[in-house]
Amino acid sequence: MKIERIDTYVLKVSSRENAFYSSQDYFAERTSLLVRITCDDGTTGWGEGGQYGPPEPPASCIRDVIGPRLIGRYPAAPTAIFEEFYARTRDFGQKGAYVEALSAIDIALWDIFGKMVGQPVHALLGGAIRERVRAYGTGCYYPPDYADRPVMLDKLREEVLRIRATGVAAVKMKIGLLPIRDDIERMRLVRETLGDDVEIMADANHAYNYASAVRIGRVMEELDFRWFEEPVVPEDREGYRRLRETLDVPIAGGEAEFTRFGFRDLIGGGCIDIAQPDICAAGGFTEWKNILALATSHNIMVVPHVWGSGVAVAAALQALAIVPHAPYTARPVPLQNETMIEFDRTYNPLRDDILTQTFVLEDECLAIPTGPGLGVTVDADAVRRHCVRHETIDASS
């Protein structure tokens, strides 16, 4: 059995009628990179990368560097392939587009591996600890008319109630675009709207320096927020460490970090309470195993970042199946020592359209797919509808 063909699909969907701001950017479209690997017996595997910035750079890495060297290789060796190709590109590709490209390839190879042996990826990773995982809803971004304060607050109240009504266990809001006093008002509104019994998290997308993060973090302590995500820029390890020492609210981060080497420094440096690797960016399932081992050896909870298409959600569910309680207790306590899945509640056809299955919340949880590989089926026609650039690598490339 050999790899015969690799297809890359750059996906883009305009969502201007559902556009929003985070602290860092204006989102008027959803984008991602899907990869399909086809073997000479017809077995296919799907992977995803290219979610953070333009998907074209990781697509180019696959087309020009990684893909041609994979043709003819035995597919059911994802760990060996990752190690080899990471080593080949480490002089210039320790972070960013190359690791995202390797992540997409790695996920697709694990998907193939699972299909070859008739087992879900989580079985190959050691076996499921859970059959389903609690979901929290990401939303509460800033609308395009965020400068109109009354309108913005009304929309925020409506969105909080809508997210909660979808059946999620907790809600994560965005902060960092407005002056701190205005975001404090938004945080108080969310707590007032949801009441005291619903967990709330805040994600700043690294909008603050240490002093500003302390100021808004004190209010999170008062309002009993579950975690403070990406408070400072990812390069500011000292800022992370000082915040963790200063604030009582747990500090989360890692979506902008790559491979076990990045998380070795983030976790070993005492920077975070909750690690948030993205399987589609940090190194696929191969590096997920290593990051999980690092985190659990430091008694750190792992809650992966999830942002992309339905393939990304399926990959995260497979990964979350094997996450132990941190720390272990006879009865896991939600959001205390039990992991969760991020389930973005904003408009995203790439998440909702490209699989033949639908992710359904039941009792605040998503079920972990049990079929071979990723356990889901990609709708190739839907991929083509959202694809703006398709390239093929094969023996003739």
Categorize the overall geometry.
globular
**Extended strand count:** 15
Mean pLDDT: 96
Oligomer: single chain
Q: Tell me the radius of gyration.
A: 20 Å
CATH architecture call of the largest domain: Alpha-Beta Barrel
Roughly how many Å apart are the termini? 20 Å
Top-tier CATH class of the largest domain: Alpha Beta
Helix content: 25-40%
Computed structural class = alpha/beta
Looking at CATH, which topology of the largest domain would you report?
Answer: TIM Barrel
SSE string, helices as H and strands as E: EEEEEHHHHEHEHEHEHEHEHHEHEHEHE
Number of individual domains: 2
Relative strand content: 15-25%
Number of helices: 14
Spans where pLDDT lies below 50 across 5 or more residues: none
Please give a quick description of this structure.
40% of the residues lie in helices and 19% in strands. It folds into two domains: 134 residues, Enolase-like, N-terminal domain (Enolase-like, domain 1), CATH 3.30.390.10; 245 residues, Enolase-like C-terminal domain (TIM Barrel), CATH 3.20.20.
